[in-house]
Design a protein that fits this description.
The complex is a heterodimer of chains A (about 550) and B (about 90). Chain A is built from 20 helices and 16 strands. With about 550 residues, chain A is α/β, with parallel strands linked by helices. An 8-stranded mixed sheet of chain A has the order 1-8-7-3-4-5-6-2. The radius of gyration of chain A is 26 Å and the shape is globular. Chain A starts with 6 loop residues before the first strand and ends with a helix. Chain B is an alpha+beta fold and about 90 residues long. Chain B has 3 helices and 4 strands. In chain B, strands 1-4-2-3 form a 4-stranded antiparallel sheet. In chain B, α1 runs antiparallel to α3. Chain B is globular. The chains are: A alpha/beta (about 550), B alpha+beta (about 90). Chains A and B meet through α3, α4, α5 and α6 of A and α1 and α2 of B.
Amino acid sequence: MPAAPTEIRGIGVGSVPAVGTVFILTPSEAAYEHRSTHHTPDEEASVLATAIATTAATIRSETAHSDATAADILEALLMVMEDPELQLMARPHLDVGDDAPTALFKALDGLAQIMGDDEDFLSRVSDLRGIAVRISGWVRGIAAGPGIPQEGTWIIVAEDLTPLETSQFGPSVAGVVTELGGPTSHTAIICRALSLPAVVSARGAMGLSQGESVLVDPEGNRVLVGSSLSNATQALTFHPQSDTPLITVRANIGGLADAEKASKTSARGVGLFRTEVLYLSATKEPTVAEQKASYVEVLRAAPAGKVIIRTIDAGSDKPIPFLRIEDEENPALGMRGFRLHVDHEVFLASQLTAIAQAIDETGRDVGVMAPMVSTIAEVATFAQMCSAAGIRQVGIMIETPAIISVLPDLAGMISFLSIGTNDLSQYLFAADRMHPQLGEFNNPWQPGLLRNVKLIADHAVTLDIPVGVCGESAADPLLAIVFAGLGIGSLSVAPSAVTDVHDALSSVTATQAAEAARVALAAHGPEDAKTLVRALFAETP
Amino acid sequence: MSESMIHSVVVRDPIGLHARPVGQIVKAVKESGLVVTLRTSAGAEALATSALRMLALKVKHGESIDIIVKSEDLEVSRTLAITIEALINEG
């Protein structure tokens, strides 16, 4: 009997499994190491110039088809790399006997030092180093670049992936496995966008061998060595028993295009309209009339049903061109969300006025909510601002632990609640959503999160107001059922996820959902929770 | 006889003069074949053909910089300076 295949567990992204050959994306140590040379500095300088020019040309041809923004950034990086100044900075290192790649690495270190506190630049230094490693590989004759073959079916295995690396994925890439990264990390977002199955936060992935065949099983949150598609965990299929889901399913939108997309789905209204998207490209503050025109347009296109608008949600890491937001040490814990009203009260008031006018003009059923509130005073201020603007349905996002415990005190101030599970997880677990090693903390199946969702739902019953969930987590059909069982009254998901969530919620009874919630709440870890809930529905005919 | 034209710009991009516009400026200046220099209010200068030098100016949001273009044709200079301004603030 063959031994059971080696299994590596992680967090699955996507639901369709893939089998392919492991392609480990770690340039060999030889490309990174510092070396000296017996060539003259002039000879080595000429090698460096040729290596930079050749590698830049290769990267340009590899990324000719990536999206415009990614291509622009890459082009800027290549221009820095090709800048003769950089070669001048490398020269002193060549003069003391370093080989071309070593001098280039040291020149980049020097550059990073000059740029010091420039965060935008520093965030690109790892990409510049990535390009330098490819240049090094070219000089030293090592396959150092991604250099993913165009033929074949490859599963890319890496510690984590940079935008430079993901931008080079072609049709020969069938799946991705990363040792680090979480469900909302860069790698996961890109894989979702490319419809590539992935398992992230897969401890032990770097122990896989180049060239062996593996099964990427995102539904099972695992990678199986030497296994075939027939062993993949089947995505659950739900067979709707009615047209009416157990709880209301709405759509998340950011603007007109999303609203139009959402209106073609079975979404009953909009549960989260992220208004900051409207302002990202404005270089100066739009007038009330301009804002109103945008809201009218979106409200007219949005699917029938209630529409919940969230006021502007920005921060120093998520800047809006015309709102001055100081750089901060710790943007996630800084001036963001509703806290912006302190410095930008006039703008926020203009946004509320524009929304109120758009409600009058379209006659739509609209609620307006504030992002990231944590005190009773903030909620009172927001309620007053809405009332002054003539907005009647006022709500808040639940994203901070502090607001949960004071919910009973908000009676009479607000008429609905919406849970943002992404940020709520980040703040409950004190774990950065984008941190490559903290993916597990941000897993929405964490009992620590689910038990808080239950607490919020119970408070909502006492307050006698509706509560919804609008985080990424609600797009998981199984978790959607759990939320319904926890007493959540509506979910809001990306337009592309509406059908799956709607179908799942139309195929279960309230009793089944309550059982799913009971099982998930009792679990001791996110894996247990998901496995046990999954088992409840796996046999559904 | 080529003359210098100076065009002052306030950087409105919240993250200042950063990698993406800098790359686009290098491209535009190289295509024009003209000599363009950026100068900060503190007097630091960088040739606009060097992405590195421009980034090292570390121009922040709200700072003013001079775009200095050398050309025989003032109209050509002005057009290029306005193109660069657009790249800085909209690119």
